[in-house]
Amino acid sequence: MKETLYSKYESVQASKILTERFSAESKESVIILNQHSSSRFFFLRKSASFENIRKCFNTPSPQLKRVKSAVELKKEEVTTPIEIKDDKQSTIKDMIFQKTKHLEHWMTQKNETEEPSEKENIDSILDDIQDRGIVRDLSLSLIEASKKAGITYIVYPKKKKMRWKKRLKFNKLTALYDELSKPPKVLKRSTSHGILPGQKKYLLKVPLYERKLHCPSLPLCLNFDEFVRSKGGIPENCDPRTWALDMFSKDKHQKTTTKKKAVKISIHEGLSERMKEPPKIELCDSLKSGLSPEVIKYYESEVEILTKEINDKKTYPAFAYCRRGALYRKLGKLQSAMKDLQEAILLEPLFLNAYWHRHFIYLFQDKINEALDDLNYINKYNKNNAEAYLSKAEIFRRRKDITLAILNYTQAIKCKPMEADIYFRRGEMYEIANKVLAIDDFSKCIFYDPKRTDALLKRGMFYYENENWILAIQDFTAILNIDPQNSQARTYRGRAYFKRQFYKQATQDFSVAIHLDPNNWLALYYRGCLFRKSSPFRALQDYSVSALINDGYENLSCFLHRGILYTDLKLWLLAICDFETVISLERTVILAYINIGLIHLLYLDNYFEATWHFSEAIRLDPLYIQSYICRAETYQKLHKLKKAVRELSRAIHLQPDGIQLYIIRGQYLLMMKCYNLAKFTIYQVAEMNKGLIELSPIQQALIYSFCENHDKAIQVLDRITLNRPELTMYTLLAKAQMKAKRNKEAVRMFKKALDIFSHSDKGPNAIAASADCLYNLGLCYMEEGNIQMAFDCFTKAVKANPGFAEGFYQRGLCKVKLQKDSSILDFNHAITLNPKHYQAYLSRVAFYGLKGRYSKAILNCNEAIKIYPQSVRAYIYRGVLKYYNKTYKLAITDLTTAINMDKNSYVAFYNRALCYTKINELRLALTDYGIVLLLDAGETVMLNTFINRGLIYVELEQYSFALEDFKQAALISKTNVNLCQATAMCHHRNKEFEEAVDFFTWAIKINPCFLDAYVGRGNSYMEYGHDKAAKQAQKDFLKALHIDPTYIKARISLGYNLQAQGKFQKAWNHFTIAIEVDPKCYLAYEGRAVVCLQMGDNFAAIQDINAAIKINTTAEFLTNRGVIHEFMGQQQNAMKDYQAAISLNPTYSLAYFNAGNIYFHHRQFSQASDYFSKALKFDPQNECATMNRAIANTILKKYKEAKEDFAYVVESCPFWAAVYFNRAHFYCCLKQYELAEEDLSKALSLKPDDALIYNLRAEVRGKIGLTEEAVSDYIQALDLQEYSSVI
């Protein structure tokens, strides 16, 4: 055993200590001091040498013939095995125990030696003072006495009559010293505490303007310049920020030093000198150990044996010294242990076990650097010592050096990659700096030890904090499967269920958590929330118990919800108490103030108290509208209507679109008899809500018209015209009819108004009115589509009023529609008359855009935007012009501005989608196209949107979505052959071949000479997989070639069709013709290469595929060349091609599959399994890759993964005999022969002439005892082999 473990010391004689029996199975082992495991238990018993065993049991021969001889030895022995835990964690626990005992011993010794002498000294001095009668200045005398005694605190003289009833015990005094030695707590609040709930009833109600404000600790304004001057100014060539950081860091250092001094003085003033830090720990041999008496006795016997060996000097003493030093350390004789370890190191400097044990003694003495030196020395000569790295990591962890601790844990993991505890400890370190890395380590810990509940809890908490409820529930469930009594996991799983709205499961978990831990206030709170509506009294009980357990800030929500529940139960006073408790815990909770105020307002009629609470809520959050509304209602109850209106005005200012606020303010103004303001408010409501307002008839008509109630507006104006048949009244009536889209009636009214004008005085006002009538009459004609009549009316209007800019503008529009080039002159005239006429600028934009002068059009857009920055049309025009100018990003900026102004502008969304397509932002383009389809766009825009979005989906290879868009477009435009072709292609890509044939046929009916439709239909027929469909496909290809013999696609498709029918020579001829027509046609080279390979001409195949790769290098071509290399027996070149294909296209699954097959044939099963997995990642439907991975996993003894793969393949391909044959092999590996026999029978039912299956079933039946059936299978296998050899 020694030669195995310590091969370096082969020349040393074996020691009796080294051979130890562990159990009844005769396993020998040694307590290896440089290797420890957290879960290893040693059953140590002293064993006799081989000669002694022979004497004791009277065996005639020295050879052990039976492998179970150790069991008989176990029966003969009387002593029971001693259980000893010899790992690093237990060693550290022993060291901590010994250090604790040492400190207790030191404190006891210090207490006994110093206290009597000191007490005697100070008592004698005080007696001397009293004898001399110095009572003049007692305080100074006491100070002098303390100084003479050499202490830093004052001791008052004893009163003779006073007796101590009871002295403090030593352990209580130690706890008191520890408490007083703590650093002082720092006040973190900058303001004083508010009014406590218990003080309220004793305070007078003082008005707000007379209350004294509590001054905060910090000034309201921090003046940095004054601070710089007070510090002497900033030096030259120094950055202010750097100077400030240095200044504050200096102040911080000084404050820290001062604080340490203050703590030291307070301790010395209150305590004696015996509370100084303990001196440097000296080693001794009198420490107690926490070992059991049996283990101590065993260790002492071993020490005696080792001492005898050392004294006899029969063996090399280095190992004995190290062994004895280790045992001394465990027995608490650290001084002797250190001597022995030092001696062992002196004798053998490379004996690493001695350094390992010595570093524990250094840790006991708090000599961290020396301990690290020993560990570094161990790692220097043994890079794979995980325990040394772990010990260093723990040291750095106690030093809070996270980086070095993580580094050493990482090194330990490299040595022991399957040790779960190391991952957990490193995860705890990562948790401080990077929680994502911590979760990775916790996951690995769980992977290697699925029963680590602490790792599961930490990972579950991480998922819970990041709102990943499903994974959090899984982890908490895993904890509960291991430890069903874990109340914390129950609680958090219940909270996760609560977040996912699984209330039944959440209630069950909370109930179980409460049952397991009745003090679980959080579970009680959440269960109360669940019961609040269904069972209020049960919820009240849970809230009360939760509040009783924890009435602190953490449980603030419990009081808040219980207060709301009390309100629902109409227990007002109890609700107020709970809300006041919430305020005492957190003064910024506005909801508590408002709820108390509402209770006082609505139920207790205590308006002043309600006003105070609402005012406090507003002071805490001035933007909370509900507070203003509640305070306004309180002022209304107090008949302070002016204040109520002011509060509502503030609320309206915060929420200008709140119609209800306007209504309430109008009511209050009406109560104040402020009718004008009330009317104005109602008018605002009418504008917002399209209501009615009682005004004059004309005003009523205008308001009706404004509110789009045109019928009533026309009715009112009709009554007015009966009484006042004037030009202006007819004009108003006609305009109202225009708004109501009654153009014929409006034209009649305008003509009647012009007739009245012709018979009236021709004053300037009448001329302006007639020009307005002519202008509106022209608009009516334009609405009716009578452009020439509109042009005549606008011409008359501008003649009547030459300064009428709008008339010139409308006449210019008529000229555009009449296709007169002089329209630009009218637009220019309109701009000359009114430079702010932005619509004229936009018309000039359209004119220049139609002429292709995009830059000049953009300049006019800029002028229009300067005049009216809110013009959506101007931004759309400019965006479209920039699109045509090919400045797509600038176009997107303008179109986005237009969309922000008008969210319903489908034109802006459509054009922005076009721009996104041009810059290849396809996802954003899809979003905009989707919005266009949701808006009310025209048929043409809808058709183009469907086509464009379908093309994007095709580019993204999302053929199902593209299919739906092309179908919708085809329904809109039923004669578009390209849409039929696109729809058919999408069906073909989705493997819906019959539907593809239908759409290709539809396209051919629309255009019988459409060649792509013939080729597409032929390819769809080819996918049917039977001879009849292949013949039909051949007809389509020939039809396309008959129409155009130079059509390459049809020629290549026909070649593949002939190749599928086995007519290789004809296929080769067609591919050759295609190459002659187009020498750059790489598809023809590829097809001819495939045909040459099938014809057995590998050299020609490799030449053709090389030619194709030279023209166009793709992953598919490289993979095909790799297949040709495999047929030529050049597997190394094939692997190079597969790797090149993977590098070119990392998502090409066929390259992974073929490379995996090569690895499999070379028995590199792990690599093969990885490559099959990658192939399945990019092509999950590849059953061959799944089955090959299952076979590889079976060979790698990954039976669970192999079983899942076989099950998937069997489900996908239930009629594939090879699957059942391979799964039978898998069951044979698991020795599940009955299942193997079932699979083999199934395989034979699918492939009854396979001799291998019969042979394997014969073997399986032989193993399960079916001898006759096995013989029959062997005979059948032999018959099939003979038959196949004859054939």
In short:
By secondary structure, the chain is mostly helical. Helix content is 71%, strand content 1%.
Structure, described:
- The chain has 1287 residues and is an all-alpha fold.
- Helices cover 71% and strands 1% of the residues.
- It contains 65 helices and four strands.
- A two-stranded antiparallel ribbon has the order 1-2.
- Strand 1 and strand 2 form a beta hairpin.
- Helix 20 packs parallel to helix 22, helix 26 runs antiparallel to helix 27 (607-620) and helix 60 (1183-1195) packs antiparallel against helix 61.
- The longest helix is centred in the first third of the chain and has 45 residues, at 88-132.
- The chain is flat.
- The chain starts with a helix and ends with a helix.
- Mean pLDDT is 75; it is low at 1-83, 159-166, 198-216, 251-276 and 689-695.
Descriptive keywords:
1% strand, two-stranded antiparallel sheet, 65 helices, mainly alpha, 1287 residues, flat
Helix content: over 70%
SS elements, strand count: 4
What is the average of the pLDDT values? 75
Report the end-to-end length measured between terminal Cα atoms.
63 Å
Structural class: mainly alpha
Output the strand order for the largest sheet: 1-2
Largest sheet, in brief, is: 2 strands, antiparallel
Count of helical stretches: 65
Radius of gyration equals 48 Å
Shape: flat
Low-confidence stretches: 1-83, 159-166, 198-216, 251-276, 689-695
Beta-strand portion reads: under 5%
